[in-house]
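Help!! Second protein's tokens look totally different from the first
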Amino acid sequence: MKVMVGGTFDPLHDGHKSLLNRSFELAGQSGHVVIGLTTDTFASRKVHPIRPFEERKADLITYITGKHYPVDWVIEPLSDRFGSALASDFDAIVVSEETLPVAVEINKIRRESGRRKVDIHQITCVLAEDNHWISSTRIYRGEIDIHGHILH
């Protein structure tokens, strides 16, 4: 199975790891995972500073290689909300509750252009100790760490 997932992944927190883990599980041993990593220009729309693309990519590579997944994978630049998901031949996209609307829009555009729909696999957002989502914004604000532990 060919699976796509995308994000800014900065900092790489437990919610992102859950998204990535699900993508690799879904792909299966003979599958392929395409990770769209937002470019610096596209990521600049965030409300908090973002580390450079190459640093974020290095963190992803370290995490993925450390998991020893028996799956082929690639990281590609994501310069808009859709990346290669509109034109690529793939089977599934893995999203969080927060990014589900983008996956629905991808399928709508794919249908309109005569491409087949892809399966959407939504994971539940990982909760911090205070039962609110772990998010990069909350981490940047100093509310929680990358594991969801309350910092103040």
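Here's the second one for comparison:
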Amino acid sequence: MADTLTDIGGTMAYVLDADGPKLSSEQDAVDIIGQLWGQSVTLVVIPVERFADGVFDLRTTLLGHFTQKVIGYGQRLAVVGDLGEHLAVSEPLRAYVRESNRGRRLWFLADTNELAVRLA
């Protein structure tokens, strides 16, 4: 499956395929935004599996830099999938996810069905 543009809950979204190249850096975020330039996409959806090892360890700062770059370019970001293993070992990540999910720009959700409900 390839990265796709699709409507989710009335929002045009760019959904990355779980099997694509691993993401971790600010440059990866910029590359994604560049692919969307000139399109009416306002939401980027990235499966948990797409992120490189270590991204969900907040001590690396990779997740914060990546998400800030996407949001800084005016996109909303949804990370979808099972973060259970990562959340089980990191109180800071649990707090980051909890606070992010209270906002409107960055969400960590179980799947695109939960995302569609959030967008409705």
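Reply: Different proteins will give different token patterns, so don't panic. DSSP finds five helices and five strands in the chain.
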